[in-house]
DNA sequence: CGCAACCTTGACACTTGTCAACACAAGTGG
DNA sequence: CCACTTGTGTTGACAAGTGTCAAGGTTGCG
């Protein structure tokens, strides 16, 4: 789609897609490592949450950071007129609240999409613990850096991919997140409505619906009989190929 | 349809303008504070760069982080097929390299757009210094958090704003970045081509050019006679109003 | 049963990308 | 000096992708 060419790149090829394959394995381990270390060093407050629970709201002063032990959260940025924008999803091992550190108050709202367990630590206590435990500090930095990278990848997807590729990328991201945590990834149950997915991807709910229908017709995904939010991915490779084809097709002329 | 109005979030969104009055001062101070502390504690290597210099390339192993004392950098993410995506801009006081911490190697390429001075510190040394100096650790965390917030704001702008509002938001972001560092912000000299701006905003260069021409016709901006990359903003408020009107759904051309 | 969410599908409009042509400035080499 | 090239920016005509609007279907629930 963008005909701007970039030769000079020969040296290094990030190969983003591929890299995430490796990334997933390491990630699950790191999550466990982080959780264990936190448990040992900081005695986090543990708390069970249910779908719809609000962990924090935008504007609240930052006193705690949260670590997701299980479950699923969505992060929502609110504008004055009440419109919402989904700005992120969080799985096991992810932190919640990093974005609050800069300004001292939460920049978004965290809502549970499912039953799960949240570990909460005081930010001050975490800072002190980091001073004492270099390993912990390194892990926290890694987690923040990881969030930066992930946001950047999202940005690239939104900037460069057409609607159907975005939806596919979303499914792949979700599946990869499951796989990284050792769960089966060919059978994913989206906890989001079409409107929320569209919101997250910068699309309308109708477009999301159409793309999913198209993918289903092409047998690249299959809906569960009961719920059209439960999606089966028979062949990841075929999905990949689908996106590649779109990119190549538009790119070459 | 797009009814973003001013309050909370800072960053790319038009909302930031109001807040940036306070925020800019704080930001400039923080930058100075950070630079002083780093200079005192870590003896950074200082180095002058010129337009086009490459500070690091994607894939290089992370050993150093960099702090921008003056000048301007662009961050470029390269995909396997050679396409480039501008994923960020960096000004005085900003860090370069945070995204490399997670994976241990740089995730993008940093290219100087102008003459400037870069301070470089070894990442290991920074970690150790953070253990000894809680204040430094807090500042580093703040900086990373700030990067997360900024990326998120960019994301929202790209997801929710139409083309002309994106360009306006980009100009406002640039002006705010200058103002935050104590420079005059009504006279900004973009160091980017139309293609680069479009790339950053998820638009084509033609669209960027058209929007800028339209803004100039409406007297909301003015080009310098010599270079059409030097842009004058006579009235920030009028620019804001332009975006608001677009969002309210009033057609105008 | 009615009601409220949620999802799907179609018709149409509009924003934006694509393609093409041209203008301009800065080099470069004859 | 001119011709030529290269990079950049502007503008127009057209097409494609996506949003908008509207209608109807399904599920779950009081």
Assign the CATH architecture of the largest domain in chain A: Sandwich
> How much is the average pLDDT of chain A?
87
The beta-strand count of chain A equals 11
Main sheet: strand order of chain A: 1-8-3-6
What distance lies between the first and last C-alpha atoms of chain A, to the nearest angstrom?
A: 9 Å
Structural class of chain A: alpha+beta
**Fraction in beta strands of chain A:** 15-25%
Q: Which oligomeric form is depicted?
A: homodimer
| CATH homologous superfamily assignment of the largest domain in chain A | Jelly Rolls
List the total number of helices of chain A: 7
* Approximate helicity band of chain A: 40-55%
Shape of chain A: globular
Element-by-element helix/strand order of chain A: HEEEEEEEEHHHEHHEEH
Tell me which protein chains meet in the greatest interface and how many residues each side has. A-B, 65 and 62 residues
Q: Return residue spans of chain A where pLDDT drops below 50 for at least 5 consecutive residues.
A: 1-25, 249-253
Topology diagram in text:
2 copies of one chain form a homodimer.
Chain A: H1 16-42, E1 45-49, E2 54-56, E3 64-70, E4 73-78, E5 84-90, E6 95-96, E7 109-112, E8 116-122, H2 123-132, H3 134-160, H4 163-180, E9 187-189, H5 194-201, H6 205-217, E10 222-223, E11 230-232, H7 236-251
Antiparallel strand pairs in A: 1-8, 2-7, 3-6, 3-8, 4-5, 4-7, 9-11, 10-11
The first copy, chain A, binds a DNA duplex (30 and 30 nucleotides) through residues 1-3, 162-163, 193-195, 203-207, 209-210, 212-213, 227-229.
């Amino acid at each position: 789609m963008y005909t701007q060419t970039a030769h000079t790149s020969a040296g290094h090829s990030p190969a983003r897609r591929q890299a995430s394959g490796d990334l997933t394995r390491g990630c699950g381990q790191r999550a466990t490592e982080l959780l264990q270390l936190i448990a040992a060093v900081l005695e986090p407050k543990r708390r069970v949450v249910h779908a719809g629970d609000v962990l924090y709201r935008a504007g609240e002063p930052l006193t705690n950071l949260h670590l997701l032990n299980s479950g699923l959260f969505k992060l929502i940025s609110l504008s004055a007129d009440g419109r919402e924008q989904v700005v992120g999803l969080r799985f096991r091992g992810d932190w919640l609240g990093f974005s609050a550190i800069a300004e001292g108050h939460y920049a978004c709202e965290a809502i549970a999409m499912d039953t799960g367990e949240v570990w909460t630590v005081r930010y001050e206590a975490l800072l002190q613990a980091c001073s004492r435990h270099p390993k912990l500090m390194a892990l926290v930095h890694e987690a923040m850096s990881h969030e930066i990278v992930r946001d950047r990848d999202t940005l690239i997807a939104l900037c460069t991919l057409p609607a159907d590729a975005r939806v596919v990328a979303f499914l792949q991201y979700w599946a990869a997140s499951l796989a990284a945590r050792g769960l089966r990834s060919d059978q994913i149950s989206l906890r989001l409505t079409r409107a929320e997915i569209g919101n997250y991807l910068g699309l309308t709910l109708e477009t999301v619906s159409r793309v999913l229908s198209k993918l289903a017709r092409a047998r690249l995904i299959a809906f569960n009989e009961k719920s059209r939010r439960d999606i089966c991915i028979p062949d990841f490779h075929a999905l990949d190929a689908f996106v590649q084809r779109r990119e190549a097709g538009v790119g070459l002329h």
